[in-house]
Amino acid sequence: MATVIDLAFGQKGIIKDFSEHVLPIKLLELGCLPGNSVELVQIAPLKDPIYINLNGSHIAIRRSLAQLIELDIVEETQAP
Amino acid sequence: MSKNINVALIGNPNTGKTSVFNQLTGLKQKVGNYPGITVEKKEGICKLPRGVKAHILDLPGTYSLNTTSLDESLVVELLLNKNDKDYPDVAVVVTDVENLKRNLFLFTQIKDLKIPAILVINMADRMSRKGISLDIEAMEKQLDTKIALVSTRKGEGIDRIKELIADYRSLSTAPNLDASRISPDYFKNLQKAFPNEDPYKLWLVITQDVNFMPIEKRQIQDATSFFTKSKEELKKLQHRETVLRYQFINDTLKSTYKVDQMAAKGLRASIDKILTHKVFGYLIFFAILLLIFQTIFEWSSYPMDFIDEQFAAASEWIKNTLPPGLFTDLLAEGILAGIGGVVIFIPQIAFLFLFISLLEESGYMSRVVFLMDRLMRPFGLSGKSVVPLISGNACAIPAIMATRTIENWKERLITILVTPFTTCSARLPVYLILIALVIPEGSVLGLSYQALTLMLLYLLGFGMALFSAMVLDKILKIKSRSLFMVEMPTYRMPLIKNVGYTVLEKTKSFVFGAGKIILALSIVLWFLGSNGYSDDFQNAEEIVSERIANEGLSTYSKNYIQTNIDSYLEEVESEGLAPSAVRDSVRTLTADLTESAKAQEIASYKLEHSYIGQAGKAFEPIVKPLGYDWKIGIAVLTSFAAREVFVGTLATIYSVGSDEEETIQNRMAAELDESGKPLFNLATGVSLMLFYALAMQCMSTLAIVKRETNSWKWPMIQLGFMSVLAYVVALAAYQILA
């Protein structure tokens, strides 16, 4: 199962349905809901935390939390 | 008072809420703490059209009414408590046009509490660059509110906010979301049990762990026990609430908010790439730190010297003008010195907060947190502790004040407790004089031993801070429910006005918050140092005069006079003055020097027999194993006021009048122990340096810790823990080296 940490730089994923109790409500309120997109912006030099664009919000979260967000990776077919 | 409209300013962090506050209130604002907790309370008065006034309360930034920190709980507490004197007549919800979707989440929650709410869409100046277009009229209809499109940067739209506030009675109080949609059954039961209460308010009381209304909360728990849901079920409902809210927001924005994606690509990505780069990121951060320290040391030394001189002059003036007596002494040496001791910190606090607020305003601070988080984690800290800890290397006071940005209380407390270990600038004079005394000159691999020692002392301070953080993380059992999440805001040019307000605010809160305690302690220390109960103290002048009459001045004083005269002679030799003139001036000079030597010996004798001197002597058996005599003991005791006092006290006690470092250093080098060897040898010197590195000798820091933790418990624990540690380490060092 792919999660946020499997994304490559600049790659996007669409958040999958997840059971309610996994993620903190706080994250949901920032838009971490099924169907919304996550883009990996940066990874800190020591691999942690991870800097993402979650539904338009730019936030940094720790790897342990990012691992809980399951998603379908969108294959980029964008023209350069 | 009753005519004032109560306005609460609410919004997500990074929406420019503080700018809106500053523009609404101008300098008519005051910053304090909420009673009992250390959350900043900012309030101000705003003049509205038609002579009405509004009392504006700037609430802490929050993402939603779902609380995970003290700051956020406070917002919910206020909005749920109609009896609070600050309960808003109208809420002004500030949002950022670029993050409107997320920001509207909070807005809909406020609206559902049936508080009249005005929507402020800020940063309107960025719309064209970001390709954003809004249909304000349609949006007002959909959200059932009034909107003010504002650019605080350009100062546009503020009048519109004022008009809307003045007109708040015409705002609709209908909710955006029908709360019962979250769970029809559950809400029907709630409504049945509490027909007079608002269902959404009840829902928040049930789901939020806020500790303000224990009675009300218990009532609900009792009465609704038959349908109280489990935590998981509640969370499921909260999840549903979130989904419903976003559905509503998405529907609203679909027709009213347009972004041209091509224009939206900003500078952010390219700046981020450099500033969070694995090599350049750290290099830039350290370069910025260097710049900050350089300027703090360089710039603040001028105003600090100036303050020092002015207070010394004022004290001198008082002593010369007022009739001598206890009151004059109290004024000149107790009160004035105490106030001087507070004022002297202002330059460092102001400069540090100038930089900190520049970093915060520009958006860079979040990147520092991002870069450093992983490094701090093994010590139970997060990236948010980095800036306070590093600031401690200049001065622990502003560093501790800067911990307010750490939401997690446990992390904040640990940072506050360990910051005083870092090498603040007040330790420098002590280190420098001791290093010059006991560390031999010479070098290894091109690095001088003396420089290496200083560096080791800095590393020791920082290392000790991290190590104790790790220990405290294990020991302290504090439940903290905050999760690590940092918003990475868009880079922005800092608004000078906001920076100015922050600097002013922080300085004021130090002067008025901790100042009182520092002043009181200064007076106590002054009293103990300049009063004594013994006959020796009372008759110090006669005793010393008699001794000088019988035995002459001390060897040191004689040498001191001789050296001064020799250098004077050397000086005039080249000028070819008449021998008689030289003789005359030597005579006056000798008389002057003898007079001041006598005064110094009296001062020394008085200090020796003052309360503090007696304490120092009583203290001697305790500090003896560390290699100190009673004189050093007194210096250690008086440095409780501030570490740098060490040098000055030794100067008084050795009756060296001059403040010149070299004179004091020479005098210290000449001091012998009982066996006739130099007292300040390697073992004593190292023991003293370690003691100063680890001991909590700064009442100003204790005062600010008291203020920031809101109790005497933590500063006392800190004092005890650091003193014991300093003692043990200094003891071990001396015993091994001696």
TrEMBL record, chain B:
Keyword line: Cell membrane, GTP-binding, Ion transport, Iron, Iron transport, Magnesium, Membrane, Metal-binding, Nucleotide-binding, Transmembrane, Transmembrane helix, Transport
Binding site for GTP: 11-18, 36-40, 58-61, 122-125
Residues that coordinate or bind Mg(2+) 1: 22
Annotated GO MF terms: ferrous iron transmembrane transporter activity; GTP binding; metal ion binding
Source superkingdom: Bacteria
Binding site for Mg(2+) 2: 25-26
Main localization (coarse): membrane
Keyword Ion transport included in the entry's annotation: yes
Topology of this chain in the membrane: Multi-pass membrane protein
Bilayer-crossing regions: 279-297, 335-359, 413-439, 451-472, 510-529, 682-705, 717-737
GO CC, alphabetical: plasma membrane
Keyword Transport in annotation: yes
InterPro entries assigned: Fe2_transport_prot-B, Fe2_transport_prot_B_C, FeoB_GTPase, G_FEOB_dom, Gate_dom, GTP-bd, P-loop_NTPase
Subcellular location(s) of the protein: Cell inner membrane; Cell membrane
Domain FeoB-type G: 4-171
Family: Belongs to the TRAFAC class TrmE-Era-EngA-EngB-Septin-like GTPase superfamily. FeoB GTPase (TC 9.A.8) family.
Biological role stated in the UniProt entry: Probable transporter of a GTP-driven Fe(2+) uptake system.
Name the record gives this protein: Ferrous iron transport protein B
UniProt organism field: Flagellimonas hadalis
